[in-house]
């Protein structure tokens, strides 16, 4: 450890950290996770529903492809766009799922889908000139943080319980101004689990046709995790492919979060993305790229089994949550998140809001979840919510929800 002298502390006081960095947002899941880890280190028994990643092993044949890549010396830099084999595989895969044809030259590979959020904002807005980006609220917190960090103006689009965690196209139309540059859509959605149905996508496309300057970032990282409503992408609708950045990846479909492979497709922006990759990551992990080729091109039995398991866990958690006093939960159509309304449960135990409820649930009952405020400002009149990631075993789901029910009963007022 550096031993700081008084002189070096004085020198540090003159150094400035940019406002952009000091004010950068974060993913609160990681903040809560640190809280959970501190409790675990004290020997506390915690059941965690915090983290949004599959709890399965990466399929065996995908692991083997990575081992083979290392053994065959495929571990140097690749082109910033990614290896041609993966660009071809991702183009076919994304195109087939959306019923469109995608040219491999329009596909770029990065270290997860997440970097494309930044690259898209960087490639479509200018710093500090009032360019607006519409994003879903509640939503993946990185959207708002990256919009602000890159000097654009965040314009939240409310997702409402009355629409099962999705948005009203009329409200979207009202958000668009001549300064709107980008609309971010996320389906299936984190944190509400909502899947945007085809009729809503068509309404969005109709609205956008009157605003040809608006790009669309279609965050479709959970595209393979739909349980009822079939997955649909706005990119499939007439006139939308040109302006839509399709973002998908390996993390959620093949349990590959730590491998860091995402892919995005757009004809005009691909060359821009490639330059951003060169300027930042150089390239995604060469080894992981070969693993992703095997994931896409190889047998899908593991992905299908994981999907089936998530669907039965969804059914279980929604059924159990709806039996808890003061809790109501709609059936989410996709991803692996449940978004119960806990307004009445908060009232029952005298918690002033969902964040107080979350903290008490963690400290008094040993159940870790996230609160709605971790996904953006609460929507006025829309109640209090918490988020469960049900990427957890059925035993953990049963025990965790039972603990929550007992916690509410124990603390019930009057
Ligand atoms: C909505 C959404 N987009 C993007 C990501 C990032 O995924 P990746 O692991 O591919 O970077 C996540 C991860 O949780 C997510 O929930």
Overview of the structural elements:
The structure is a single chain. The chain is built from 15 helices and twelve strands. It is α/β, with parallel strands linked by helices. Strands 2-8-7-6-5-3-4 form a seven-stranded mixed sheet, sandwiched between helices. The protein has a three-stranded antiparallel sheet with strand order 9-12-11. It has a two-stranded parallel sheet with strand order 1-10. Helix 4 packs antiparallel against helix 11 and helix 12 packs parallel to helix 15. The radius of gyration is 22 Å and the shape is globular. It starts with 5 loop residues before the first helix and ends with a helix. The mean pLDDT is 96. The structure holds pyridoxal-5'-phosphate. Pyridoxal-5'-phosphate binds next to loops.
In a nutshell, what does this entry contain?
The chain has 414 residues and is of the alpha/beta class. Helix content is 42%, strand content 12%.
Compute the number of strand runs: 12
Instruction: Using the alpha-carbon principal axes, give the shape.
Output: globular
Q: What is the share of helical residues?
A: 40-55%
Radius of gyration: 22 Å
Order of helices and strands: HHHEHHEHEHEHEHEEEHHHEHHEEEH
How many separate domains make up the residues?
2
Q: Could you give me the name of the CATH homologous superfamily of the largest domain? A: Type I PLP-dependent aspartate aminotransferase-like (Major domain)
Q: In CATH terms, what is the architecture of the largest domain?
A: 3-Layer(aba) Sandwich
CATH class of the largest domain: Alpha Beta
Beta-strand content estimate = 5-15%
Distance between the termini: 55 Å
Q: What ranges have pLDDT less than 50 throughout 5 or more consecutive residues? A: none
Would you give the CATH topology of the largest domain?
Aspartate Aminotransferase, domain 2
Bound molecules: pyridoxal-5'-phosphate
Oligomeric state of the chains? Answer: single chain
Described by strand count, sense and barrel closure, the largest sheet is: 7 strands, mixed
Overall residue-averaged pLDDT value: 96
Give me the side-by-side strand order of the main sheet. 2-8-7-6-5-3-4
How does the helix and strand content classify structurally? alpha/beta
Helix run count: 15
């Amino acid at each position: 450890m550096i031993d700081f002298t008084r002189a070096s502390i004085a020198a540090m006081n003159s150094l400035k950290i940019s406002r952009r960095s000091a004010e950068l947002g974060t993913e609160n899941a990681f903040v809560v996770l640190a809280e959970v880890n501190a409790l675990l280190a004290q020997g506390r028994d915690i059941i965690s529903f915090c983290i949004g990643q599959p709890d399965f092993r990466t399929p065996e044949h995908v692991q083997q492809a990575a081992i083979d890549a290392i053994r065959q010396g495929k571990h140097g830099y690749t082109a910033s766009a990614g290896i041609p084999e993966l660009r071809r595989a991702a183009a076919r895969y994304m195109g087939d799922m959306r019923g469109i044809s995608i040219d491999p030259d329009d596909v770029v590979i990065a270290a997860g889908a997440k970097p494309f959020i930044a690259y898209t904002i960087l490639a479509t807005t200018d710093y500090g000139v009032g360019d607006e980006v519409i994003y879903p609220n509640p939503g993946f917190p990185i959207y708002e943080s990256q919009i602000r960090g890159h000097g654009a103006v965040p314009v939240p689009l409310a997702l409402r319980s009355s629409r099962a965690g999705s948005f009203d196209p009329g409200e979207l139309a009202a958000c668009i101004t001549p300064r709107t540059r980008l609309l971010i859509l996320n389906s299936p959605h984190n944190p509400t689990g909502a899947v945007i149905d085809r009729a809503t996508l068509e309404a969005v496309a109709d609205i956008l046709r009157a605003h040809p300057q608006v790009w669309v970032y279609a965050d479709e990282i959970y595209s393979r995790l739909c349980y009822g409503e079939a997955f649909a992408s706005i990119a499939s609708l007439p006139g939308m492919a040109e302006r839509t950045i399709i973002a998908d990846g390996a993390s959620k479909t093949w349990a590959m979060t730590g491998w860091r492979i995402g892919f995005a497709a757009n004809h005009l922006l691909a060359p821009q993305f490639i330059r951003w990759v060169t300027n930042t990551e150089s390239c995604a992990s060469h080894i992981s790229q070969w693993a992703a080729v095997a994931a896409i091109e190889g047998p899908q039995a593991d992905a299908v089994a994981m999907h089936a398991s998530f669907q039965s866990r969804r059914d279980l958690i929604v059924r159990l949550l709806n039996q808890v006093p003061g809790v109501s939960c709609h059936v989410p159509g996709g991803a692996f998140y449940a978004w119960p309304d806990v307004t009445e449960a908060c009232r029952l135990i005298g918690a002033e809001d969902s964040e107080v409820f979350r903290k008490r649930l963690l400290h008094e009952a040993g159940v870790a979840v996230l609160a709605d405020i971790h996904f953006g400002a609460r929507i006025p009149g829309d109640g209090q919510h918490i988020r469960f990631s049900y990427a957890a075993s059925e035993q953990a789901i049963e025990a965790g929800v039972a603990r929550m029910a007992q916690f509410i009963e124990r603390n019930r007022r009057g």
